[in-house]
Amino acid sequence: DTIFNKFSIGLNERYGFIIPHRSSLVYIIEDHVKSWDITLSYRTNGNKPWHALYRTPELGIGFYHANLGNPNYLGKVSAIYGYIVIPIKKYKIIDFSYNIGTGVALLSNHFNYIDNIYNIAIGSQANAYIDFGLSAKFKILNNLSVSSGLQYTHYSNGAWRKPNLGFNIPSVNLKLFYSFYKSHEPEKSKVEDLKSNFIKKNEYSVTISKGVRENAPPNGEKFYPTAICLKAERLVTLRRKIGTGLDVFYDPSLKSRIEDDSITFKNIYNFRSGIHLSHDLVFNKVSITMQAGVYFFTKAKDDGLIYSRFGLRAKIWKNLTTSLTLKTHFVKADVIEWGI
Hints:
This protein is mainly beta.
């Protein structure tokens, strides 16, 4: 076997549309979004416990390119991303799976005061790229396969530069790829041994995170919010962790937003507090975290009471973990948080 026997290459075509989640977006959406991406992926071989637990997933990198349907104001976008494909069920000629990807997207036509005041969706060239999908893969020949499914793609900058309504793009896709390896299932005995030796355990942590954001109008002052999270979690299976946490947020950008609501400002109003529930999908030392919380103290009425986080957490040394999460209020990004 050579190193190439562990890889596959793919060419993916997508056809979708931008969701006008704000009425102001309707006027700049002219056509469907046509996109393509090329991928290079590595099939895990099952020699690590999490490989077997996730049915030998694929890890890969991809290059994505899309025409956003309005050449004058929206232009095109290109992205480089990493992703994981996790099998759901495998049959003789068809496999079902889901995929999760994240990376960096570069927009050709973002908002600026000189020649593009109509792109009220995104104010920066560099943005976060997030991608989810479900697909069915059909084997055509020994190493040649085709897959089709549904994708949901999002890019935004986490409010570090206004405007930041972001793009949300559902699409259908058709992918052709060539695999240099033979598909195989992990040994059932190995998975059962892992499960039988598993012991549920509790974990407790403190996370401090920082971010940067900008209030409207565009090109305004930058603010640097801080968050402290006290968290209790329980590893309920080898793949899942659930928990709850107490959040304390300090956000100096709240002052101008609260004053816009005709409220007499006090310094304590720069703080917000909330509690959240969390679910982590665990991949050895890395996990994908999803959190939903509610504020019990806040004076920022325009954000509402519900907040959420989505992102990555990684153990880098013994009891030290780092995180990168996007905090939102429903579909409105609040800040990208870097934590430790």
